[in-house]
Structures are given as C-alpha cells and as structure tokens.
TrEMBL record:
PANTHER family: HYDROXYACYLGLUTATHIONE HYDROLASE GLOC
Protein name (database record): MBL fold metallo-hydrolase
Cofactor: Zn(2+)
InterPro entries per the UniProt record, alphabetical: MBL_Glyoxalase_II, Metallo-B-lactamas, RibonucZ/Hydroxyglut_hydro
Gene3D superfamilies referenced in this protein's UniProt entry, alphabetically: Ribonuclease Z/Hydroxyacylglutathione hydrolase-like
Domain Metallo-beta-lactamase: 13-169
Alphabetically ordered keywords of this record: Hydrolase, Metal-binding, Zinc
Range of residues in the leader sequence: none
Length: 191
C-alpha cells in the first residue's frame, strides 16, 4: 500500500510516500511537517528511506526520520548529505511487497531517481514528471532541459499502460502513468 503522508500539509514540502508491506519504506521524507508522527500513526516502524533526489523540500525531514526510526537512507549519490547507501541505475530495490527498478533520471537534479515496478504497476516519478504533463524545473543548480527530456524518454522506455504514477508534488494518477509521462515529454520539448 502507498500513502502520501504529506497530503494536506501547508508549507514547502514534497509528497512523502509510505510504502507498507514486507519492507516498509518512506520515499522522500518531505520538509516542514511532522512526518515522524504521521509514520507512527500508520506503522510500527520503518525499514529504510529511499530518496528520489536531495532537494531540501524532499529531504528536510530526513535527519528526524533517521533518528526516530534508526534507519538509513538510500539514494543515487552517497556523497550527498544524509545518503548512506547508493542505488545505481538499473538496480532493484524493494518497496513494500514489490521490487522496483531504479532509473537514473537527471535533468531536474543530477542525483534524481525514478522508481518503477512492472509487477506492482507503479512509477514513482519524483520531480521528473507530474500529473497532467508537468515536468521538473530546470532553472535550479544542476538543472538541464536536454538531460531532462532524455530522462523522460528513458522513463517512457519502462512505464507501461495501466501503471499508477506517484509524483513529488501534486496528485497521483491511477492507471494512466504512461499518458501523463508522454504529455510531459511533449511539453518539455516545447520549452
């Protein structure tokens, strides 16, 4: 089961997805809200934190989560503060009851990962793509529109018809991830 713990939070935060099951994982702990209390409301503990990328709105709560639950964080670049273990492009990581393939998708930030599970029919898009064909900013440090377009195309090579989409900001999409990623690819090319 995937729950957005940041739902309804006012303030500067990303979505924070709790994936429960065999391996309970928090994907992006968010920022500026008590995510620890929200995790404790839903489960007894965490097995790990997985990061889509290390912008402050996605990792502001990371230290509090690591301390409260005694867990470590996985992300693409272990040289980034708070990242304890690297997840390489193409590597498999277990979230809940399913295996997800990590897709290195720079363009918004160099350490950006999307996570895709063909088995679960889920794409975790971070800030690469958003519902309705939106795409991540490229005007911040490490932003690069050309690389972002290449990353969206890379995700299109993996996402399947019927997949759900969970994104870093805004609503999730049930069953139509591919269509929204295709729209993002078109929009990013026009900018």
């Amino acid at each position: 089961m995937i729950s957005n713990l940041a739902q309804g939070v006012p303030g500067f935060t990303s979505n924070a997805f709790l994936v429960t099951g065999e391996r309970t994982v928090l994907v992006d702990p968010g920022n500026e809200f008590d995510v620890v209390a929200r995790v404790r409301d839903r489960t007894d503990g965490l097995d790990a934190v997985v990061l889509t990328h290390t912008h402050p709105d996605h990792v502001g709560n990371l230290d509090a989560v690591k301390e409260a639950f005694g867990v470590e964080a996985w992300g693409f670049d272990p040289d980034q503060p708070g990242v304890d273990h690297a997840i390489a492009d193409g590597e498999s990581v277990r979230l809940g009851d399913h295996e997800y393939v990590a897709l290195h998708t720079p363009g918004h930030k160099n350490d950006h990962l999307c996570l895709h599970s063909p088995e679960a029919g889920v794409l975790v898009g971070g800030d690469l793509v958003f519902a309705g064909g939106g795409f991540g900013r490229t005007d911040l440090a490490e932003g690069d529109r050309r690389r972002l377009v290449e990353s969206i195309d890379y995700v299109l090579d993996h996402v399947q018809e019927g997949d759900d989409l969970h994104v870093g900001h805004g609503p999730s999409v049930d069953g139509e991830a591919r269509a929204h990623v295709e729209l993002a690819a078109q929009a990013a090319r026009m900018g």
